[in-house]
Hints:
The complex is a heterodimer of chains A (110) and B (114). Chain A is mainly β. In chain A, 0% of the residues lie in helices and 47% in strands. In chain A, strands 1-9-8-3-4 form a 5-stranded mixed sheet, with no helix packed on it.
Amino acid sequence: DAKTTQPPSMDCAEGRAANLPCNHSTISGNEYVYWYRQIHSQGPQYIIHGLKNNETNEMASLIITEDRKSSTLILPHATLRDTAVYYCIAVYNQGGKLIFGQGTELSVKP
Amino acid sequence: ETGVTQTPRHLVMGMTNKKSLKCEQHLGHNAMYWYKQSAKKPLELMFVYNFKEQTENNSVPSRFSPECPNSSHLFLHLHTLQPEDSALYLCASSQPRPGSWGYTFGSGTRLTVV
């Protein structure tokens, strides 16, 4: 599974868009990019995933660069409840396992 | 409620005790996982089960003993633990092809070893 690199922490003002970057320069063609978040002392929560096309759901948007070496998770209107650690993970479709790194600690401030 | 239920939510045990953590899912998933999360550290994958068979053990000490009697239930039996084993223990489930469906996590068991 490809290694991912994320900034350790970010701040965002409430109501503004939060853009969380992730670098996965060694990703292979059949590895998906998954995003999870973990609110303090709870289990991680699935947010979104994608292979090469941009994806959007009710929680967030995922923008993957054309070369697939990086991606950005966008929370369009961050709220205080979005304060959490966000994990970007590259995982194979078959036989892959979710291996978590340090993630990005997002603080949404009033 | 995520569909993956872990009990108990909190557990305090002495180093000589024997206890078990339970995980239950009724999502129709056939793969189940145990993770450990120590304070200020990333989640560490401990064990993987596919169709009730253990397919991965990431060098976990034998004082942790997993059991998967069926695809819906997963246990972690604990005995003679050390204080450094205090952590949040998380269970997850997925289809065997997680790239398509992702993992669903439980809320975890907060374990304190005294």
